[in-house]
Amino acid sequence: MIRDAYPTTEVVCLIIVAVFCRVDRISLLWLRIRHWGFVSELNRYLRVVTLEDGVTIHNAFPDRRFKP
Asked: DSSP string of 39-52?
């Protein structure tokens, strides 16, 4: 079975950061930025947290409570 047809988690996160649905700055103390994007394979919104530069990925996970 070929698994190259699906993008890796890192690629999905980079796409969400580049073409985000919604962005929210968490705190001036933490300097984190949250990005959300819909992932059809998961049928959920994925939250990608980046550092203050907006590019370096800190964390990513499906967000159950996100409302578009």
From this structure: ETTTTEEEEEEE-T
Domain boundaries, the chain: 9-63
Decide: 42 and 53 in contact? Cβ < 8 Å.
no
Tokens of 23: 């962005």
* Residue 5 structure tokens: 């047809």
pLDDT tens sequence across 25-65: 666 667 888 888 888 888 889 888 888 888 888 888 998 88
Which residues, at least 6 apart from 3, have a Cβ–Cβ distance to it below 8 Å?
none
**What single string gives the DSSP state of each residue in 9-32?**
HHHHHHHHHHS-SEEEE--TTTT-
Residue 1 parent element (H or E):
none
Contact between 37 and 27 (Cβ < 8 Å): no
